[in-house]
Amino acid sequence: MPIHRRATVLAAAAVALATVAGPAFAQAKLKVAAIYTVPVEQQWVSRIDKALKAAVARGEIEYVFSENVSNADYERVMRSYAEKGHQLIVGEAFAVEAAARKVAKDYPKTAFLLGSSGKPQAPNFGVFDNYIQEPAYLTGMIAAGMSKSHKIGMVGGFPIPEVNRLMNAFMAGAREVNPKTEFMVSFINSWFDPPKAKEAAFAMIDKGADVMYAERFGVSDAAKERKVLAIGNVIDTQAQYPDTVVASALWNMEPTIDLAIKEVKAGKFKADDYGVYSTMKHKGSELAPLGTFQSKVPADLMAKVKAKEQAIRDGKFAVKVDDAQPKPSAK
After folding, report:
1. Please, what are the averages of pLDDT over each run of 10 residues along the chain (331 residues)?
2. DSSP 282
3. Contact 221, 68 (CB under 8 A)
4. Where does 111-227 show beta strands of DSSP type E?
5. What pLDDT sits at residue 17?
6. Closest Cα partner for 311 from 134, 130, 133, 132?
7. Spacing of C-alpha 197 from chain mean position
8. What domains does the chain contain, in order, with CATH numbers?
9. 3, 21, 80, 326: which has the fewest Cβ within 10 Å?
């Protein structure tokens, strides 16, 4: 689809700011564009958008984006931004790897940083991913400790590495607390279809799941309606579900985005794998505050979780990165 009107609005605002501040100030700002295949409110891309907007607030960059870009139109939008002189282009290339890498080859002086299952491509195609398996493991521990039926439902988007590794880490954490935990696993084959995710969750709750792993939007809504618990992923939605969402594995894109901006400004950006900056060591992920569940989660359970969290931070425990499709253990 054509570049979304939001990009135009943001661009106009950036021009207005530059005019007020003067030419020297405008030239100091890096021109950054982002391309999203889903609404910007969707969990995953919202974290990228948040980090980029923080850089705007600091006066470091000018930022525009396009959302709901179809796979067929992704290459055209990438080229459009490159032609307009954006020095850093961010997005997700999972379904458009070949096209995105082709564009990067055609614009070697432009820095590209895209979510990808593949490797970096010299000289200018860097990759990143949501390596938040560490807090996912911790939320799994909490989920198993809070479940009374010992059955947990899990609804994901697509069974690809980016989703699988988080589900597997969550399941491993749950099994540490209760080895007899049973899992129901389903994929809706969409990145943004809340009604479909909700229906998949209802089916699991009907089969006895009393804790739901909300990898997609819609799952927490089902949990709220049926008065069972939910575990969040990537973002913290407890404010919206104060009686439902117990804990969340939070993804912070700031370390990744801030480093990329710094490297581009210094003329040192190269084809690197930025995935490591999503780990807890680099403050790229964390266990979100329990909020309303602070006093509801048993103290002995949280003591185990905190001990494991410290072991991860101290490098004494490593959460396995398992990209294989998770298998259900309950019918």
Report:
1. 41 36 52 95 92 97 97 97 98 93 97 95 96 97 98 94 94 98 95 91 97 93 97 93 97 97 96 96 96 96 98 95 90 54
2. G
3. no
4. 111-115, 125-128, 151-156, 182-187, 211-214
5. 35
6. 134
7. 17
8. 5-128 (3.40.50.2300), 133-251+283-313 (3.40.50.2300)
9. 21
What is the phi/psi pair of residue 322, to 5°?
Answer: -115, 105
Host H or E run for residue 159: none
Nearest to 203 by CA among 226, 181, 180, 175: 226
d(CA 103, CA 101): 5
Can you give the three-state secondary structure of 195-222, one letter per residue? Answer: HHHHHHHHHHHHCCCCEEEECCCCHHHH
Extract the tokens encoding 154.
């899990």
Which tokens sit at 102?
A: 């082709």
pLDDT digits (tens, 9 = 90+) for 39-91: 998 888 999 999 999 999 999 999 999 999 999 999 999 999 999 999 999 99
Model pTM score = 0.86
The residues near 33 (Cβ < 8 Å, ≥ 6 apart) are 7, 63, 64, 65, 66, 81, 84, 86, 88, 89, 90
